[in-house]
Amino acid sequence: MTDAELECLECGDFFKHLGSHVAQKHKMTARQYKIDHGLDVKKGLVTESVRAKQRRHVMTNGTLRNLELGAIYRFKPGDHTIGRYQRSEQTLDRLSHKPPTSIETRKKQSEIRKRWWENRRKRLQTVQSMIRSKHNH
Questions:
Q1: pLDDT tens digit sequence for 80-137
Q2: pTM exceeds 0.70
């Protein structure tokens, strides 16, 4: 993976703003994509160059001021009544201040690798099938 583009773990294509691609092509939220692939739900799905552009934009368009004004409405640690969606295991671990055990971490990483290789195998089969169909016609 380079700063130029991020690989989509669903289809194998590369993008600078992976979250937009996932929403448009795979009809899933960026959050669901991160959960499905074992990615940190707090990290963005954009390249560093896009992130830098967004940082510069925040300073000039009033977003920073709005964030400061909205601080009183944000989630407070220990308040489990706020939120529109089920919190991820990673967020619950952060809130409870308990890091995952090494066995849990290894199991999650193993599942992520299995899913990645399965997706890769499916993509290769699709490409091979397309090549075979071109040769047969």
A1: 665 556 777 777 777 777 665 677 777 888 888 888 888 888 888 888 888 888 777 6
A2: no
Q: Tell me which DSSP letter residue 101 carries.
A: P
- The alpha helices in the chain, defined as continuous H runs, are 18-25, 30-36, 48-60, 63-69, 89-96, 102-136
Q: Which helix (H) or strand (E) holds 7?
A: strand 6-7
CA angle 106, 111, 117 (to 5 degrees): 125
Name which CATH class applies to 1-99.
Answer: mainly alpha
- Residues with Cβ within 8 Å of residue 58, at least 6 apart in sequence: 64
